[in-house]
Amino acid sequence: MLAILCPGQGSQTPGFLTPWLELPEFRSRLESLSDVAGIDLVAHGTTSDAETIKDTAVAQPLIVAAGLATASVLLPQGPAAAGVSAVAGHSVGEITAAALAGVLGDHDAMVFVRERGAGMAAASAVTPTGMSAVLGGDPDEVLAVLERHGLTPANANGAGQTVAAGTIEQLQALAADPPTKARVIPLQVAGAFHTSHMAPAVDALRELSADFDVSDPGVTLLSNADGAAVGDGADALARLVAQVSNPVRWDRCMQTLVDLGVTAVLELAPAGTLVGLAKRGMPGVATLGVKSPDDLEAARTLVREHGGDPAGAPTSPTDAQEA
Question: C-alpha 226: how far from its chain's center?
Fold first, then answer.
């Protein structure tokens, strides 16, 4: 069984799309998505510097578009036709996953992420906030230390990684007073995502998405809220909206993939973070990050070896939760 993983914000690096743009089909898809986003994603993926692509309003459309364009090259007929059993995305990557599963069309996905990025950037500007990864340490002590500093465990990523979110002052206090045997690493994001600081963006996204055409997922789609499979398109969209100000439970997404019997995971560009977590949190499962076109041959081999029956029905939400 094969799962496709879609990365979230912070995975982007300057110039990461340069080799991809040598593929005409990738460039065409990216330019089309760029038109919807209203920003030059070709430039941002090739020549823009780290500070520019850290901007939430740039980073989020860039990451979703990169994932959709990568998938269009790797899986031209879509995940279901290739026998992919499940898709899951981390944070903004949930939008990529929802589009791959058929819940949203590419146009609505890009409109959604465009407004999500702009709304979260505006919310971030109200108070200087950010996020830091806490690696290692006793899980209970990590949570206790975050609470002591007034921080939110915004991402429970599993594999010994928790992401703390809050004001810059709170994060500085955490860096000066970390949990025992834990490292604190500031992340290249511009706000305290998945916390109450993002509440102003939620209502606008709910109103925006009210008129979207949605379909039920064509493959098993996992939710960041609780790791459960979501079988209803309207529910999947509602979860995308609510997730902006709620924690990401990637640990539960990985556990659901294990429970489903997934044997391999493939992460779309900009790849690396999620396969790294999977190597530690999903032992025995084959992993591959599609970082550049050089990885496409290995990725196609992985799809052939681990893809299921293309005609098979997606696993139901009940099956996934009870597995």
Answer: 14
| Cβ neighbourhood burial of 50 (10 Å; 0-12, 13-18, 19+) | exposed
pLDDT greater than 90 at residue 31:
yes
The three-point CA angle 77-41-222 to 5° equals 50
At residue 309, the pLDDT reads 57
Is 90 within 8 Å of 248 (Cβ atoms)? yes
Which long-range contacts does 139-148 make (Cβ < 8 Å, 24+ apart)?
141/179, 141/180, 142/179, 142/182, 144/179, 145/174, 145/177, 145/178, 145/179, 146/174
Burial class (CB in 10 A: 0-12, 13-18, 19+), 46: middle
**By C-alpha distance, which of 223, 136, 211 is closest to 180?**
136
Q: Which two tokens stand for residue 51?
A: 């500070």
Q: In the predicted model, is pLDDT for residue 195 greater than 70? A: yes
Strands 2-6 and 264-267: parallel
CA–CA dist 77, 79 (Å, integer):
7
Residue 187 vs residues 8, 43, 109, 111, 171: alpha-carbon distances, Å = 12, 23, 25, 26, 11
Full set of structural domains in the chain with CATH: 2-124+195-322 (3.40.366.10), 125-186 (3.30.70.250)
In the chain, DSSP finds a helix count (H) and a strand count (E) of 14, 9
Helix (H, G, I), strand (E, B) or coil at 245: helix
Q: What is the pTM of this model?
A: 0.90
8 A C-beta contact, residue 2 and residue 264: yes
CA proximity to 82, closest of 71, 93, 94: 71
Residues annotated as part of the active site: 91, 194
* Spatial separation of the C-alpha atoms in residues 191 and 126, rounded to whole Å: 10
